[in-house]
Specification:
The protein has 100 residues and is α+β, with helices and mostly antiparallel strands. 37% of the residues lie in helices and 14% in strands. The longest helix is centred in the C-terminal third of the chain and has 17 residues, at 78-94.
């Protein structure tokens, strides 16, 4: 057998439409009183800001749309929010939690 093909890295940009794959679940854990992300053989503990972003990752909205929504909701500069969202989603994409 040949070498396995390396997984191509998805690069998150403003026009990306992020979504969590069906095998990744974000659930509220009442016992821990926090949101968790369940992945095969892994558990992630997102902070409250990450939870708000991930709730908006439906595969229809772009990163720019999400940034604009959160900018309006939190009265913060959209450019700053978008940079932070891209960095967070890129990290989660590299871990297989988000795809675009």
């Amino acid at each position: 057998m040949g070498e396995p093909t390396p997984r191509q890295r998805t690069v998150i940009v403003s026009d990306s439409k992020p979504v969590m794959p069906p095998y990744i679940k974000m659930r509220y854990d009442a016992g821990r009183n926090r949101w968790i992300i369940l992945a095969p053989e892994r558990l992630f503990d997102p902070d409250p800001i990450a939870v708000e972003v991930l709730k908006l990752c439906d595969g229809a909205r772009t990163v720019g749309d999400i940034a604009a929504h959160l900018s309006n909701e939190y009265n913060a500069p959209v450019q700053d929010i978008e940079v932070d969202i891209i960095a967070m989603l890129q990290d989660l994409s590299d871990k297989g939690v988000v795809k675009a």
